[in-house]
Structure formats: structure tokens, C-alpha cells
Fold these 3 entries.
Entry 1:
Amino acid sequence: MTSPDVRDAGRWDAVVVGTGFGGSMMALQLVRAGLRVLVLERGRWVDRDDSAWDTRAVLVDRKYRSVAPVVVAGLKPIYPDELVGGNSVIYGAASLRMREADFTMGSLLSTATRPERAFVDWPIRYADLEPYYGEAEQLLGVAGVAGQDPTEPPRSGPHPETPAPYGSPARALADAAAARGLHPFPLPLAINFAGRGGRAPCIQCLTCDLFPCKIGAKNDLAVTVLPEAIRRGAFVRPRAIAERLLVERGRVAGAVCVDADTHERFMVRADAYVVSAGAIASPALLLRSGLGALEPNGRLIGRYLMRHCSGIVVGILLRRTNPERRFHKQVAITDFYFGPAGAAPDAGRDWWGTIQSLQVPPAEYLTSHAPFPIGQIGAATLEHHLSVLCVAHDEPNPDNRVALHPTRRDPYGHEVAHVFHRYSARDRGARRALYCEAARVLRQAGARLRIRKPIATFSHAVGTCRMGEHPSGAVLDPWCRVFGVPNLYVVDGSFMPTSGAVNPSLTIAANALRVGAHISAGWSTVRRRTEMA
Ligand SMILES: Cc1cc2nc3c(=O)[nH]c(=O)nc-3n(C[C@H](O)[C@H](O)[C@H](O)COP(=O)(O)OP(=O)(O)OC[C@H]3O[C@@H](n4cnc5c(N)ncnc54)[C@H](O)[C@@H]3O)c2cc1C
Ligand code: SF4
């Protein structure tokens, strides 16, 4: 079955691949139920030393960069960062819930008038996730204020923490938006402003988004959920790459892994396997494991890739925008979520998305990443910038996909992920509408120039193993189990049938808690399924 050079590395109740929002929440949920859980992670623990806030180390020299590229058609290859805790370690900590209507987007945006529209309903509703959103907010210590977000879904309790007061740039943005009749509110953030749990409180620096937090005040998974899972008995194995799953008689019988440092191969076995390697790496792993041949859903693995149609509008003001040089990614505007300000979700119009304040990047990052002379001009005017992020809904399209590259291999000999993605005219239209609204707010705040810049990254990738009611249209069932492989689950952002227009992490976390609770509650059935194989 396996070659003799693959060492047997033991048997567990559950093996989880990846320590991002999906994998960490799942590991915690399973270990709380008393299961023996092994968590495989190809990255390593982050160094909480001076290098964490060093632009050169993190963004220019790319200290945590993977050796395995993702090849993107029409763009340069991407080398993601690899860390225990996944992207949570370097993320911006914005922690919003999806809107209630996001779960029935297919029905609300009638297909009668636009037959080509690909939006679908989720097989679950917001109410199914609501308790888990609450639990995720508790685990991540989200600081927010309920009742001010005009499209906020119902919630059964307040946020666990209170946000910090606005800094100058956030105050300028919020005042300008309010003057235009909008309803800005404090962006919910998974940041420890109050020193929760005896940990160091946030010192409100300017190296948050894109950077690890040196003092552990960002409530990333490596300082919150994973330590708790480990305390309860989960075994987290850094630098362990899941190479492929062995599928025998319709069940996963083992995971072949490779040690990222020694290149030694080893095999782990379990009753249940949870893949949570991120929306690009997870479909690649499933395809490397031969699951593309599954009937009838294997052909859907990797398809419907979404990444939000996002962009930045940089306002340039005559005055210095942040003289105190304080953290200021603090404001959100959701008035345009369903189209023009105040539009109802069922108004039969295209939905747009959210606008959020954005941390101004370090000068060294601009000069090293933007083409000459744009980077130099940007760096020279940086103290006068007021930037916002526009996050637009994007359509699920089967042609936007993750496949395996036909020839390119990484240093471990794995076929690398090959990504194909194009936005539709609808996606670009939604982003354009948000750009215009954001520019109006920035002009109101005093911006003399307003510069738009699309975001080309896949940092919000979702949708590549979507869940649904039926295998003819989905890879996963409503409990995120792969149709046709009863002991295999996928719980990273791949599961999402539509992207919504809020940053995805809290939804991925809440869903993993939901699925983890389901697996734990029905553990004897899960085990029986494996024994029957
Ligand atoms: C710079 C940046 C800022 C962001 N800011 C925000 C924000 O403010 N708010 C928000 O909601 N979202 C934000 N996001 C997006 C958010 O981080 C992601 O949506 C989220 O982390 C996805 O979680 P996940 O569980 O799907 O996967 P990931 O976080 O990608 O975790 C997957 C993990 O699996 C590991 N892995 C991959 N392949 C293998 C393998 N074969 N074997 C073992 N391990 C493997 C990876 O190393 C990684 O640790 C941001 C992203 C970036 C990059
Ligand atoms: S702003 Fe706060 S949470 Fe973010 S990196 Fe700085 S200290 Fe850490």
C-alpha cells in the first residue's frame, strides 16, 4: 500500500491538516470532546522578537515565505507565508459576521432576469451559525460595539471586548462618512486592547496588518486557540506537510506526510481526517490524492474560487493624517453592502460590499513593492495618506479554479497549485461603485487626490470545495464532509458557497466550530464508518 521508506507515525482519533481558522477551531472542538487529535502544519511557530515588526525581515526578505509556489495564470507566482496559526498571525484582525441575507443570495438575486448569475444559497442559514459566531468572538477576544452597524445580523450577545478609541485618521474618516449621511462604526477587531487573560495589551503600533505581533496582543490563533487546544491534549506538529491522503474502499486510510526540514516521509492514520490547509492548498491536496476522479463531485474540487473583488483608495491630504503615529484600522462602513446606501437585499440590484479603514503601509514596503516612481512618491507622501479598503462581493464561477500544475514541482516533488481566476464585469462594477463612494468620503475628509489600486492577492480566497445539498453541485455536504468519502472533512475557507463581502476569518472560525461540534456529538457514528471500511 505504501512504500517501505514511509515510516509509520501512529494512529489518532482525528488528524487535522492546517492551523488556520478552520483547523485550529476544529482541533479545539475535537479535543474538548476528549478525542486524540494530531494537527499537521507545514509552517513553524513565529518568532516574537524584534524581527516581528521589522519591515525588511517580514515583507522584503520574507522570513516566513514558503518554498512552494502557487502558480497563477497571468500573474507572478505567489509564495505564501507559512506559520503555525496560518494567516491569522499576519492578518488585520477585522472580525465581521456575514449578513443574514448572504446565506440566501441565490434566491434574493433573482435568476429569472439574469440567468447567467452564479450566486447560490447556502445549505445552512445565518441562525445555524449565530451561536458559533458568538463562540468564535469569545475565543478570539473580538473588540466591537453591537448595534451600530446598519446591516448587522441579529446577535444573541455583545462582543466580548471594547474597542480602543479612534485615532486621528479613523476619527477623520468616521466624521466624513457621518457628514455624508452614512453610518460608520468601530471595525470589530480580534485585538487585545485591555490586556485580557493577563497578556500584554496592544500598544497601538503601525505594524499590525501584514506583520506578526511581537507582544502577542493580536489575538491570533497561535496565542489564543492553539495554546488552549494543546493544553487540552492536542498534538501540534509544525513543519509537517500533508502530501496526500490514501483513499481505500471509499475511505481515507492514512495521510502520507513529509517533514519540511528533513524531507523524511511518514504516515499517520486516524478515524477522521479534517483538511484545513486554506482554499488553495486544500483542493490541491485533494487533487493530489486522486479525489478529482470521485463521481459526481470530484470534477468540482478546486472550482468556484472567489477572493473578493477588493481594492484600495488612497486619499492624499494637505495635512499630516496621523501625527501621533497610532494604529488606526478602526472604522467600517456597510451602508453599501446591498448596493446604493440603504438598499435592501431583495431590491433586485447588484450588491456591492464594505469599506474599511486601512493601515498605511511602511515606506520600505512601498518602495520595494510598487513600481518606480510610484513607490517613491507614495513613500514620500505617506504621512499625508488616508487609505480605505473596498471589499466587494465576487461571483462564484466554475472557471475560476485551483488545479495541479502539469509540470511544475516544489522542492518536495509535489505538483504545485495552478490558479486560474478572472473577475466578471459584475464583480468589477461592484468594486468600482465602492471606489466612487470611498473617494467621496475621502474628499469629504479633505483628500485633494484620490488614487485607486486594485488588490491582486488571494488573501481572501474561499469557495474551492463548496458545500451544498447535493453532490451534483457541491464537493461537501452541509456538515463539510466530502460527498463520497465519509471520514473526510474540509473546514477552511474552501467550504464557502459565496464569499459575502466581509473579511472571511470569523465565518471560517464559526463554521469550523459548528462542524467540530457535530463530529464530536456523533463520534461513535464517525468511528463506525471507518470500521466498516
Ligand atoms: C495579510 C492578510 C491580512 C488579512 N486580514 C484579514 C482580516 O483583517 N480579517 C479577516 O477576516 N481576514 C483577513 N485575512 C484573510 C484570512 O487571514 C484568511 O481568510 C484566513 O486565515 C483563512 O483561514 P483558513 O483556515 O482557511 O486557512 P489559512 O489561514 O490559510 O491556514 C491554512 C494553514 O494550512 C497550512 N498548510 C497548507 N498546506 C498544508 C499541508 N499540505 N500540510 C500541512 N499544513 C498545510 C498553512 O501553512 C496554513 O497555516 C487576511 C489575510 C492576509 C494574508
Ligand atoms: S497594533 Fe496592537 S495588536 Fe497590532 S501589532 Fe501593534 S501591538 Fe500588536
Entry 2:
Amino acid sequence: MRSQPSAHPSAGRRVWRNWAGTATATPARWSRPRSEAEICAAVKDAAAAGLTVRALGSGHSFTAVAATSGVALDMSGWTGITAADTASGLVTARSGTTLRALNAELSGLGLAMANLGDIDAQTLAGALCTGTHGTGARLGGLATQVEALELVLADGSVVTCSASCRPELFAAARVGLGALGVISAVTLRCVPSFRLLADERPQSVDEVLEQFDELAAANDHFEFYWFPYGRQALVKRNNRLTGHDAVLGTPVPPALPAWRRFWEFEVTENVGFGALCRLGRARPRLIPALNRFSSAALSTRTYTDTSHRVFVTPRRVRFAESEYAVPRESLGQVITELRRAVPRLHDPVMFPVEVRVAAADDIWLSTGYGRESAYVAIHQYTGLPYQEYFDRFESIVAAVDGRPHWGKLHSLDSGRLRSLYPRFDEFRRVRAEVDPDGRFGNAYLTRILGRHDL
Ligand SMILES: Cc1cc2nc3c(=O)[nH]c(=O)nc-3n(C[C@H](O)[C@H](O)[C@H](O)COP(=O)(O)OP(=O)(O)OC[C@H]3O[C@@H](n4cnc5c(N)ncnc54)[C@H](O)[C@@H]3O)c2cc1C
């Protein structure tokens, strides 16, 4: 599931392509560092050749945030945990470690990340750079779990930043878009391993919207999926099991047996849903009915499991996605307008809408900066038209000052983004200090951050 360099037959140069197929690039050079010294050398060599540099994660951003025509740094040879203190929970890992590998290693140490998104294919640095988040009204995105970062800067030097050491660089680099340097290592504050009680059940979307604040407050990790032609939402409530539950003998459901995990996560949610999507793509007029069928087929599931086995599910059906963080209190308005807009679209929508929540944080370019957020993610099956849908969605969230996920499709530029992020210009100032020549630039960064020399 890592980014997919492939041979380009005509040009003879390796092409980089993202997971969704929404971005491609032809780097002038590839480099696969296996040590911090090799990362520094690659950055210095790029400077000597007058080339820009982008570190690659797993290619799971839908935007061209990772794309480069300069040097592509494939970080897949720079992985693993290098230090762990099980008493404090502080763990340092190399930046190219995938979340999947990290979760497995942490589990072996009796530790876990406090919150995660839906998948674990991303690299640690790749996930942080775009502000990847999960759900939970009392928890921020993944970057809020970071205690310190080690960065290779544009001049090839290595710096560490944390709340007490270069705090401005730390406030910028935790969600740094790959614009400030190559992250070499990340120190995370982990928590002791925990189990989650997962409760997934259909509920009317009207009822979910009415109870939204209570549901967000009452559950550690609350989210819902809603097929936009249906009336039912699938509500997921994931709550932490404490030692108490075991001591008091509170009855909790067991983990799903392997056959059921396979049947539900792989066969139904990937193979079955993928077949419906292909049918919808071949016969678009059937899509609203297929969508209602998927909505009616939602069923109840309760189980317990290790945290990351509940947070993460396999996503094999490919799609395009846009996601915005909106002020929590605007969620009802956004969903109501989306509900009105979808049936009027020329091209029908095959995929569900996903709604999650997060606490406010203090990271300059985090979508959660300074406000409690609801995240609204819209998707369309790969190969089906999505532009009209995504444009309509953007006009709805614009009215409530929505902030786009940096790794998901959006059309905003620096002019608009400056008005959405109070620390936008401070981020640009720090960037100009640590990367005066725009060594880590690309076209996407020019669009969202403005020209480097301004
Ligand atoms: C199926 C799917 C499910 C998803 N689920 C979620 C979800 O639940 N929540 C959510 O918030 N997002 C989600 N995303 C989006 C995803 O988490 C982000 O786009 C993430 O940034 C992808 O990580 P990656 O490792 O693929 O990084 P890439 O997309 O490859 O790169 C992202 C950025 O990180 C930079 N980068 C990578 N490594 C380094 C480094 N060492 N130093 C400096 N910069 C670096 C790249 O240059 C680029 O700017 C999902 C995406 C997909 C395809």
C-alpha cells in the first residue's frame, strides 16, 4: 500500500502515482535513504543540483501534496522504533515507519497511540504532515500526540524541536505539509495498550443530528456514515474498556472471530461494496437505488478488540475524497444542505458521507486549530464524476468557514486559507527562516501557501 512508483514506458523515467490515482509526478531523481546521514546528503545533493526535494509517505493523500519534479525521497528504508520508555509512554520512531508497523511494535511494548484514523497504511511522518485525524470529542488529531520532531533542514543540518526547544518550529512542523524539512524521527507520547468496545448500529440520520452533541460527548470515539440518498446512518460508538469493566465483571462482547472479521470487513465491505460500485459506475441511473439498498443493509455489530484493530479497517475500494473541518455547531446546517444538494446533482453519488469530531488544538496549520471541529468527508467511487459534487460541498462548507484536510481534494488557495488560519503568516515566516530558497516546495504548496518569496 506504499506509494507506487512505476516505470513510465515512453519517457523511461519512474512515475509517482498516489493511491487514488488523482495525482502523478515524474521526479527528476529518486533517492532511498537508509540513515539520517543519507537524508542530509540527499538534501545537500539536491541543493547542489538546483532541485527541489519532497519526502514521500505511502501516497495516500488525494492532493498533490507529495508530488515533485525534483528529488523524491522514498522513506521506506527508514523505519522502526529507536527508543521507548514504557513508564512515560515516550516512543521515538523513524519517520518512514508505517502506522501498521508502528501499531504492531507498540503493541509488543504494551503501548498504543491514543487515537488513530480509519487506515494504517500511511507513514508516521506522512500522516502527521497533512493533519491526519481520527474521531473523539476529547482528542485532537495525530499531531497532538507528538512530543518532539527531528528535522533535516534545507541546509542539510539536523534540528530537534519540541514545546521547550524551538517551540515555533514545533508549532509549525507538527502539521508541516513537508514544507519545513524532512522529518527524520518522531517522538510520540503513547498510552498503555487499551481495548475498545465497538458498537455499530443503524439510526435515523435526523435522530443522529438531533443527538449529535450528546453522542459526541458521551462516547470516546463517535462517528457516523450516511449514504446521501438514504435516511439511515450507521453510528459507530467506540468506548475504552477500563480495568473496572473487568473487575466489576461488566459483560462485554468478545472479539469478532476471524471468519466473521473476514466476512464482514473483507467480503461484505470491500468485495460486495466494490461490486455494487462497479454496477453503479456501469449504470449510473441505478446509483440512488443502490445507495438506498446499502443504507437499508446496514446492520448492528458489537465487539471488543485491541484499540488499533477497532480504529482501522481495510479500504480496498478506491475513491476520491474531500473533507472539511467545520465548527462543531455548524454540522447540522452542513448536513441539511448537503442532503438537499445531492439529489439535484447531475451525476449521482455512490459513496457515503462520513462525520467525525475532534477537540481544539494549538497546532498552527491543524484543521482543529483553536476550535472544536466536526469533520465532514465526502467520497465518490473511482471513475465516476465528482467535480460538481465536490464544488457544491465546498460552497456549503465555505459559508461556515470550513477548513480543508490538506491531504484531501479541495480548491482553496493561500488568499482564502489565510483568513481561515489565524497563524498562517507565522507559519510562512518560520518556513522562510528554515527554507529560504523553497527547497521543499512544490506546485501544491505554492497554491496553498502562496509564493515563497513573498
Ligand atoms: C483510504 C484512505 C483512508 C484515509 N483515512 C483517513 C483518516 O481516517 N483520517 C485522516 O485524517 N486522513 C485519512 N486519509 C488521508 C491520509 O491520512 C493523509 O493524506 C496522509 O497524509 C497520507 O499519508 P502518507 O504516508 O500516504 O503520506 P503522503 O500522502 O505520501 O504524503 C503526505 C505529505 O507528507 C509529506 N511527508 C511524508 N514523509 C515525510 C517526511 N519524512 N518528512 C517530511 N514530509 C514528509 C509528503 O511530502 C506530503 O507532503 C485517508 C486516505 C486514504 C487513501
Entry 3:
Amino acid sequence: MTVIEGQTNVRSARFGAGAIDGIGQELGRFIVTTMEVPWRLAQPRLGAQPAAVIFVETMEIETLDRQVAGAPQCDTVLAIGGGQAIDLGKYLAWKRGLRLVTAPTILSVDAFVTPAAGIRRGHRVEYVGQTSPDPLVIDYDLIRTAPPELNIAGVGDLLSIHTACFDWEIAERAGKSEYPFRAEDVAKARAILSDTMAKADAIRACSDDGLHTIVEGYMRVNTICLPAGHYRVEEGSEHYLFYELEERLKRPFLHGSIVGLGVRLLSRLQDNRHAEVVGFMDAVALRYHPADLGIRPEDLIASLLNLRQYVGGRRDLWYTVLSERDISPSWVEAALVNLKF
Ligand SMILES: [Zn+2]
């Protein structure tokens, strides 16, 4: 693997087919956080039995705190699975001050390399705590046991660079940027996205190269965002649509897919190379259509019409295209024309 210069938030990493084999023997007494399917796939390969296995129930803080309180003493938390299993592991490791090992089995979200755990308080996303995987285990064979669309969804948190950087530029031009604007960070983030877009075929095929491109992209994003102390080059209005939808519908979504839907709609609102970015999403077969996400037309319409008010009512969200451009019923109608419900 290429050496990434800078702060990646990954203390050590193991990449390769079979990377997870026997890892249980190096962890002392350990707890696994996971879900049913990834656990069934990974368990026979660990080479040791955990002291406990904690399954994801919900990501609501009350559930997590109950699970942390009930967890036995141990040395290490081994998080195996998708975003929720990883976030549960991060939360437990942070609360108890334990070593964290992350082994993503799907790449649908960047949770396995970011420091904070994404939790929910009353169906609202919050990021809490501080963790670094040691090691991050990327076992291509294990990851490829998941349905391909779940791994392809991993491009969502890189595609968001497209709309998020544009939003940051809008904020800077309006004199409303919450952080010192850094053109070099925007340029670096766009380079990550263009390197990702150049690998469309490999990503669609979920080849070693394609999976590696996604993981490396996330780690490179960290080298920008960790020193800066914020994720503005990677998060903007496209994520805000997902926050509104999740609170409205009170259920989580496959992260990369819902972010993809956000990129599709908000790049249009931004007038920001919309066709190009949609072309890439279609080329990699990212499943971002409302039909893929189980979103009904009336819910998406209501969400879009409410989005500016929702963002305006939240002090913690940044200045974006939503702060400047109106979303009218006729805009929504035109924007939804080619989406599948
Ligand atoms: Zn994200």
C-alpha cells in the first residue's frame, strides 16, 4: 500500500486477503461488537473466542450506555461489521479507555477511520469520543463476502467532497465560513475525489484495487480534516439532507447511499457539475435512488421543502448552499424527474 503522509487516525493497518485470520490470538481478553451476518462470517477466522459478543441493537445513546454498562472487563474491543457495529465498538472503547481494533466487513461509511463515534440522541446524529484503530484490518476477501452494493456505497463519503467543498467556498465568499478557509485543503480534497473517480471500474467490480481506493481515500481525508479540526471538505448540504430524512422517518439508512442521494440533489441546487457527478455514481452502480433506500416520494418532497428551515433551526450546522438558495415546489418537481421511486 502507498504510504500516506500525515495524520490518518490509523495507528497501524493490515491490508490483504486473510488479514483478519488469527487476530483474536493477539488481543488478550477481548469483546466483539458486531451484527449477525458479519459475525457468522468472521467468527471462524479469529483463532480465539471473545469474552463477550455485543450485537448492535440501536445507536440511541440509552441503548449504547446500557450495553457499555453490561460489558465484561477486557483489554481490547474488536469491532467487526458495517458502520453501526464499528460505531458501537468505538463508543465502548472510548468509554472504557480500551484498545480498539476495527475490521470493517463493508465499506459503506468512513466510520472505521474517523475518531468520533456516530451515535443517536432522539434520532439525531451526534459524534462523540475519540478513538484510533490499532490495527485497522482490511481483509479484502472478508469484505467481498458482502453484497457488492454495500461496498460500492463506500464512495458516498468521498463523493460528498464534491458538494461539501463547494459549500465551503460559498460560505467563504459570503464571509460566513465558521473556520479559516484553506484553499489548499479544498484542492487536496478534490484530488482525492478525482483519484477515486478515475477508479470507477475497479470500484464497481469491488476488486482489491477498488476497495483499497476507498479506504485510502478516507485516510487521506483524515490527513486534511484532523489537523484542521473539522470535516468541512467532506461534509456539507448533502449530509444535511440525510439528517433531515433520518429525523423525519426515524430510521437509519445505508450511509453511502443516502449521501449519494444528497450529492445528486444538492449538486443540482449548487449548479455544480451535476451531470458529471451523477455520471460517476451511475458508472460505479451506487444505489442512491429513493427506491433503493425505501423512501416514498411524498417523504422526499416534504424533506426537501423543509430542508432550509431544518438547517436554519440547527445552530451546529454550517453555512452552505441551503443558506442562500431557495427550494421551491417547482425546483423539487424538476429535481425528482429522473429519480426512481
Ligand atoms: Zn458521512
